[in-house]
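Good day; I would like, with your permission, to put a structural problem before you. What I wish to show you is a protein chain and, alongside it, a tokenised description of its three-dimensional fold. Please examine both parts with care and let me know of anything in them that strikes you as inconsistent. Thank you for your consideration; the sequence and its tokens are set out here:

***
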Amino acid sequence: MTASRPWSRAGSAPCCWRKTTTGRSAHPIHDPGPPRRARRWPEPDVPLIDAPSCPSYKGGIPFRHGGSWRAAPLQEPKVRLSRIRKVMGIAARPGLWPALAQGVAATVDHDAVLRDQRFATILDVGANKGQFAAYALWRWPQARLVCFEPLPGPRARLAAVTRGAAEIQACALGTADADALIHVASRADSSSMLPLGDRQKSLFDMDEVGTLRVPVRRLDACVSPGLARPALLKIDVQGYELEVLKGATGVLPEIDAVYVEVSYEELYVQQALAADVIGFLDAAGFSASRFLSGVKTDETVVQQDILFTRR
């Protein structure tokens, strides 16, 4: 009988051979060697808990930030999963590929709420670079699409995405016709007519990088009466939603559905919260009918898109 060997063939990793009554088995067993010491993350030189961007250290994944170790927000894995689902959703819809070629990912996640709705007119307030517009043109190709975007950079991308299929108005919307400063964020889609609050900056890892004077108009002054019905008013203006609605009291009677992003915490200075927006729309004859799962921290919803339909 051939004697067993403590090592495998030359050049292979160490292993031991399983002995049997008839000799060694044909398959070596890998020897993992001495147990490895568990890795300990270095002690942070700043507190982990009092930073608003770190709602809880428990379950967070430490990451390096500005020379300091911090705990990643608990929602990060969910955010990554949401992004993966979004990419897969776009990949399954060839009609959204041209926007992606322009570097714009259509907000196909809204299809969970809007796919069975039918609209002849869509007013996209806070169009940014065309994320919702690309989705709207795919979902309702025969509808009239009117987009409002005050920032020139995103507006140029919006024009490239819509390729002449949308009416684009270069203004923000509010309660009066005037010029005002928009607060530009390091992520352009988080820019607002309101200053960014500390909670917004820390939660979404961004900052205010400047201001820009832009025209502000009332929606009533931008849209002529007699909209083709059904009509959708989509609002995503980073805390300025109530001001947009107050400037649209003449148009609202012709609107069949309002799709608006609301906040349950103050992310922008002196912004209206969800209860204010819901109360205004309730008084205007709308009821919340569908909810899109929003941004969460520690299982608490911070922002959410809500579809309101006319009663």
User: Anything to note?
Assistant: The radius of gyration is 27 Å. Confidence is low (pLDDT under 50) at residues 1-22, 24-32, 35-77. The CA atoms of residues 185 and 208 lie 4 Å apart. The longest strand covers residues 286-297.
